[in-house]
Specification:
With 218 residues, the protein is α/β, with parallel strands linked by helices. The protein has nine helices and eight strands. It has helices at 13-24, 31-44, 52-60, 89-99, 102-117, 128-132, 146-159, 166-182, 204-216, and strands at 2-6, 27-30, 64-68, 73-77, 80-81, 121-125, 138-143, 195-198. The strands form two sheets. It has a five-stranded parallel β-sheet with strand order 2-6-1-7-8, sandwiched between helices. It has a three-stranded antiparallel β-sheet with strand order 3-4-5, covered by helices on one side.
């Protein structure tokens, strides 16, 4: 079973995907964390994120994997747990630039498809339904208003100990939406077979119940 969850930043994809995987017993694959891990490593090593060639070289020599437990999932980059570091404002500001390179996406998509080959998975990202799992059994597209997404991201950053100004976060999300929607490969879009759910005024439990009901009814 393959479940694809796409949508813009702050729409609740990761939270819902994690809960859905736990509810169904499937493996959760956070593709965004993979791009974030590569971005984090590039920043740590002073790699020019405007050089696709340098980033591709870095991607080929970087090992990104996940460690699972009943309660959590850790993102491991070259043997190091970077689960917290990849959520920093610096990574937030740079990840859409890194993820826009077609060479990077090609490398990541192959890794993601390998992960999904022998397991039932819930996978979230920007281009899962179109590029990574075009044969997904369900293709959900979660969205929310920019204002609500900015509030959620601000709350997340403050909880992690980072300074977070609402207007700065909102502007960053607007810019990221534009980057995600206009990239040549793996652009964020609603597909003809996408099941769109607006999470703006929905509690997490309500969104999860709605998705489970859709899956149960087909």
């Amino acid at each position: 079973m393959k479940i694809a969850i796409d949508g813009p930043a702050g729409a609740g994809k990761s939270t819902i995907a994690r809960l859905l995987a736990r509810k169904t017993g499937y493996i959760y694959i956070d593709t965004g964390a993979m791009y974030r891990a590569l971005t984090w490593k590039a920043l740590q090593n002073n790699i020019n994120i405007n050089s696709g060639e340098d980033l591709e070289r870095l991607a080929r020599e970087t090992k990104i994997e996940f460690q699972y437990s009943l309660e959590d999932q850790k993102t491991i980059c070259d043997g190091r747990d970077v689960s917290q570091e990849i959520r920093s404002p610096e990574v937030n500001a740079a990840v859409s630039v890194v993820a826009a390179y077609s060479g990077i996406r090609s490398i990541m998509v192959k890794l993601q498809q390998q992960m999904a080959r022998n397991h039932s998975v819930v996978m979230d990202g920007r281009d899962i339904g179109e590029c990574v799992l075009p044969d997904a059994d369900y293709k959900f597209y979660l969205t929310a208003s920019i204002e609500e997404r900015a509030r959620r991201r601000q709350k997340e950053l403050l909880a992690s100990g980072y300074d977070a100004e609402y207007d700065d976060i909102k502007n960053e999300i607007v810019a990221r939406d534009l980057n995600d929607a206009s990239r040549e490969v793996g652009a964020l879009k609603v597909l003809p077979d996408s099941i769109v759910i607006d999470t703006s005024e929905c509690h997490v439990g309500e969104v999860l119940d709605k998705m489970l009901e859709i899956m149960k009814g087909t």
